[in-house]
Amino acid sequence: MFPFRRIQVILLLVIVIGMTGFLYRWHSLHDPSNWLSPTMYDKDDNQDLVLKRKLIDEKYCGGPCRFILPLFIMEQESKAQMHFRQLAFMSGLVNRTVVLPNVGGSRLGACLDNDFEFYYSRSWAVKNQDHFQHITMNDFRQWLLERQAIDRPGTSQSMHIHVNLRGHAVEPNNCFASQHLLNMNGLPERRLYLNETANPLKRLYYEDAVKDFFLGVYRDAESGESVQDEITDKIEVLSVYYDRRFPFVHNPAAETPIPYSEQVTSQADAIAKELSPYWAVHWRTERVEPASNLVGCAHALVDYFDTRAPLLSALHNITSTSMEEDDDDDDKSNLDKELQHHQQQQKQPTLFLLTDYPHVFDEKDVDEAIANNGTTKKMKPASASFSPNSLTISHHQAIQYVYKHLQVHVTHLAEQSPSATSSASSPPANWTVVPIPYDIAKHDPGWLGILDKLLAMRADGFLAGQPSVCGRKSSFTNQIMNQRLDHPRTNVIDYFDLPKPSQQDDLDE
Question: Are residues 197 and 281 located together in one domain of the fold?
Answer without folding.
Answer: no
